[in-house]
Specification:
single chain, 267 residues, alpha/beta, Leucine-rich repeat, LRR (right-handed beta-alpha superhelix), three-stranded mixed beta sheet, 12 strands
């Protein structure tokens, strides 16, 4: 069944290190001439040179006998056409999922979309995420890794309407204070990389959850909590979150650590 905007926002599956990832169908676009007026699109418009893998590159060049330089030129043209479209049609889209790596120019361009509610960013390098302040209507934001570290998550201060937030495969962030002020969160995933690739993500404590009584799903991977919680403290905190899905094992895992007098570490 073709994915709808509602599915893109709410239908998630457990994957990776306990994180959530949007369900994909096979309907993704590479070139702008494939676009037919949809409000929600999946794009694989980068990583086209030298790759034939759908979703991570496209077979668009596979049957073309052209040099690497010619392929790179065509790749640039494809990206430039999407950038121009994003900038000149600011009311066209409500959802964009990038299935291949995103550039700063693409990110800045897609943030011209005034109605954007769903955004998935993949494999960015040295991205300036402050441009997300231009899409304050976002309700679902999914990050799928970064090729270079992001220095902080201050950009979340601009996104007070977020209901679904997935920060997947990030490291070296210790200040998550913006989470305290995001009153509409219903699904939250924070996942770092394996410790051999960098230190774990650090939460000072879990008290920010008190500000999210409507949260339904929580997931953490390679996250360490500095505060040493007791079992009773965690049980009280859990009671403040009556809407958590029964399938969510966040507190089960946390209480198992606390019962042994240990710091909470989600692996």
């Amino acid at each position: 069944m073709s994915q709808t905007e509602a599915e893109a926002r709410y239908h998630y599956f457990f994957g990776g290190f306990g994180g959530f990832a949007p369900i994909y169908d096979e309907s993704y676009m590479v070139r702008l001439d494939e676009y037919q007026g949809q409000a929600y699109v999946q794009l694989a418009c980068t990583q086209l040179v030298g790759s034939n893998t759908p979703g991570f590159g496209s077979p668009i060049f596979s049957n073309m006998e052209c040099s690497l330089k010619e392929q790179e030129k065509k790749q640039k043209q494809i990206i430039d056409e999407w950038i121009e479209f994003f900038r000149t049609n600011p009311k066209a889209l409500t959802g964009v999922l990038f299935r291949t790596g995103i550039t700063q120019a693409l990110l800045e361009a897609v943030c011209h979309q005034e109605k954007l509610e769903i955004l998935r960013i993949k494999w960015g390098t040295k991205l300036d995420l402050s441009v997300l302040k231009n899409v304050p209507k976002l309700k679902s934001l999914y990050f799928d890794g970064f090729r270079s570290p992001i220095p902080n998550v201050k950009f979340l201060n601009y996104l007070q309407n977020l209901e679904v937030l997935n920060l997947y495969s990030i490291n070296n962030i210790e200040d998550f204070s913006p989470l305290y002020h995001m009153k509409n969160l219903e699904e939250l995933c924070v996942s770092g990389k394996a410790p051999t690739k960098g230190k774990r993500i650090i939460f000072t404590d879990l008290e920010f959850l008190r500000n999210h009584p409507d949260i339904k799903m929580l997931s953490c991977g390679y996250v360490e909590v500095e505060r040493l919680y007791t079992v009773s403290e965690l049980e009280v905190l859990k009671q403040k979150l009556p809407h958590l899905y029964t399938s969510c094992d966040f507190f089960t895992r946390a209480i198992a650590k606390a019962s042994k007098g240990k710091h909470i570490i989600f692996l």
